[in-house]
Amino acid sequence: MSQKSSPSVSSSASALASTPIFQTNLSATVRPFSKHAGFLLSEFVVIQASSSPVAQEAVKKALLTGIYSLIDLCGEFGRNAVLAGLDAQNGGGGARMVCKELVSGWEQSSYRHFE
User: What ranges do the domains of the chain cover?
Assistant: First the structure.
């Protein structure tokens, strides 16, 4: 039996993704999660600024996709709230710098979807 994928499968998948029902369900899933994205991002930043950050480059690279998605979900208001929380929690310092570096990397990446 052939392993080739049917063209109708990929075209039907793209047709499904463009339907209003699918897009509504996606936004219904994203919106509640976006409320928590800032807290998850803040925790990662604090870990990276601590004395024992994620040091293995392969692990950091694998995590960046998810971190960039969290930054994307936060929006500008959420990113500013994370920075303000880091200032209040740690006096800024290294955590603020780590956060700004992550946001800068996100701005240069192709992960920007919700802005």
Answer: 35-108
